[in-house]
Write a structure and sequence with these properties.
Blueprint: H1 5-22, H2 28-59, H3 64-100, H4 105-120, H5 125-149, H6 160-177, H7 184-195, H8 204-208
Pfam family, one: Tim17
Protein name: PXMP4 protein
């Protein structure tokens, strides 16, 4: 135990120096970019890993090793892209604020547009899911903003039931008659719900399994 003292002292000094650096206001913008990269990577992994795990084991075929590789790849891609985007966005925000001497709303839009183009511009399944997720939230947000600013009148009744009816009516019509227009993961989910439920051979694939695993 006595020999650990000489090792601990430099580590404590290094920790104090690092903490002092983190409290320096002149480095705050650069440090925020670095922490943004860290948070983007962690959040992307937290979001994608469970989703990829469920979707892979529910709908994808292949060996266990192939499934685990697919989960790891999807998690890595989501985590990396989100980290790169946050890093780019916060870096551009800091640069614009420094150049103009203040922060204005357009800075956010421009920085995010550039980051979106550079990081999420490739049309692949991961990016597509993220963009569609954001698009639905944007439509809700813009609708609320339009009411708040008085551009459209406040609805007398809650419009959500009508919206729910139109969304479900449209998506099932597309699934039944224009399936190729829907995202593959949504096609898989709807096939499981609405088509696989019409096929069975005995009690095993009626209640226990979705599909028979034998060749009978």
């Amino acid at each position: 135990a006595g020999g650990e003292g000489p090792l601990r002292a430099p580590l404590r000094a290094l920790l104090r120096a690092a903490n002092a650096l983190l409290l320096q206001r002149r480095y705050r913008a650069a440090l925020a970019v670095i922490k943004g990269f860290r948070n983007g990577a962690v959040y992307g992994a937290k979001i994608r890993a469970p989703h990829a795990l469920v979707m892979t084991f529910l709908f994808k075929s292949g060996s266990l090793r192939e499934k685990l590789r697919s989960i790891a790849q999807a998690t890595y891609t989501h985590s990396r892209n989100l980290a790169y985007f946050v890093f780019t966005y916060k870096g551009l925000m800091a640069a614009q604020s420094r150049l103009q001497g203040k922060k204005i709303p357009f800075h956010s839009f421009l920085a995010a547009c550039i980051g979106g183009w550079l990081v999420f511009g490739e049309n692949n399944p991961i990016n597509s899911q993220i963009i569609m997720y954001l698009l639905s939230r944007i439509l809700f947000g813009l609708s609320r903003l339009a009411v708040e600013k008085g551009y459209i009148p406040q609805p007398r009744q809650d419009p959500f039931p009508l919206l729910a009816a139109l969304v479900w009516g449209t998506v099932l019509w597309l699934f039944e008659y224009h399936r190729e227009t829907l995202q593959p993961s949504l096609q898989s989910s709807m096939t499981y719900l609405y088509e696989d439920s019409e096929v069975w051979h005995d009690l095993s694939d009626f209640l226990i399994y979705n599909k028979r695993t034998d060749s009978k």
